Amino acid sequence: MKMQKGNDKISTYQVGVLIYLTILGVGILTLPASMAKEVENDGWILSIIAGLICIGIVYIMCKVGEKFPQNGFVGTLKLLFGNILGTILAIPTFLYFLLFAALEVRIFGETAKIFLLNRTPLEQIMLPLIVLSVILARLGIEPIVRFFETVTPVIVFVLFILFLIGLNGADFSNLKPFLSHDILSFAKGIKSALFAYAGFEALLIIFPFIKEPNKAFKASLGAMVFLIIAYVITIIECYSVFGAQLTTKLMYPTMSMIKASDIPGAFIERVEGILEALWVLFVYTTIVSLLYSLSVVAKDVIGHSEAKHILVIFLPFIYLASLIGESIIDMMKYGDLLTTTIGLYTIFILPILMYILSRFKKAGGSR
Is NAD one of the keywords UniProt gives this record (predicted)? Predict the structure, then answer.
């Protein structure tokens, strides 16, 4: 990969913001239910364990990126595995970003149709989101992170207020008993918990654009810690309001929790509308980051000079992929298949292989 211009570089803080808003997407609405299905009241503990494991993978990604900061993802694969094999190994990651973005678009469309636009055809909900995401993703890494940086204070403030609202009517005795499951139960449920943090794999792509690559792990660690805290608070509040058993029966327990919160003297009639509006922003930032990652990987795989042209070519494919399945239940099954195949490969297997081989390579590329 060629050296990036100074105005294409992002700061350490912006790296953290990018990782935070890439991960914080669809999952925050469904996470309490998926964790309760796995280990009931211990769902928040499972979320912490998964977060710590993901921090370990982030560390591995950062070590590889620090060693070869200007090679880029595909360039590093070619350096470690050879040109042909490196290119082949990058193709599943390209497909992962494309299908993950399509999945996010479809789940957004289905959810928006339930809560916001119940009379609007699904296609008319999804297509504008795809187009707007492509427009921002085509502008490059710096405009993307500047937008993310602008909306972050609003997101953090509103989330804080919503967390306070969620405390109203909470009964923390519903969290008992603690640690009622054995290690085998946690091991079976860890897959669902791990992929709740999907999105940090954008680190594989952005190292050539980071001003100080040696500080990327520090920024990413901060983002991951904030996410773990946000997830744990969300799960605990849902369990304390509904109990783990009822939470498993709710499709969007976080939204239901906000709806159930009664605020004395509140001047906003539908508080959940705030979360719905904020959630649109969550999904948008996630899709933009995924599409940008897709464009960079595709550009380097096919040897094209401009990443922004790639998105225009693949826009119809993203739209068609988002139409797969008849209902949101089908999309959930599709999502499970995605995460257990090329998702597992991209997020865990490939970074570990890259890290192992990078130990036998000098920074310049020689053995």
Answer: no
Instruction: Summarize pLDDT for 54-110 with one digit per residue, the tens.
Output: 999 999 999 999 998 888 899 999 999 999 999 999 999 999 999 999 999 998 888
User: Phi and psi (nearest 5°) for 267?
Assistant: -95, -5
Largest CA distance in the chain: 69
- The continuous run of DSSP H or E covering 314 comes out as helix 307-322
Contacts of 43-48 spanning 24+ positions with Cβ under 8 A: 43/235, 43/239, 43/244, 44/175, 44/231, 44/232, 44/235, 44/236, 44/239, 45/178, 45/179, 45/186, 46/186, 46/189, 46/190, 46/193, 47/193, 47/196, 47/228, 47/231, 47/232, 47/235, 48/228, 48/232
Give dist(CA 31, CA 44) in Å, integer. 10
> If DSSP states are collapsed to H, E and C, what string results for 165-194?
HHHCCCCHHHHCCCCCCCHHHHHHHHHHHH
Q: Give ∠ CA 181-184-189 in degrees, rounded to 5.
A: 80
CA distance 314 to 319: 9
Tell me which CATH code domain 9-358 carries.
1.20.1740.10
Q: Is the peptide bond before 177 cis (omega within 30 degrees of 0)?
A: yes
- The per-residue pLDDT for range 230-285, each reduced to its tens digit, is 999 999 988 988 888 888 888 888 888 877 766 655 545 566 677 777 888 888 99
Q: Report the distance separating Cα 97 and Cα 111, nearest Å.
A: 21
Beta bridge partners of 210: 10
**DSSP code at position 210:** B
Q: Contact 247/239 with Cβ under 8 angstroms? A: yes
Q: How many CA atoms lie within 13 A of 303 on its CB side?
A: 4
Domain residue extents for the chain: 9-358
Enter the DSSP assignment of 340.
Answer: I
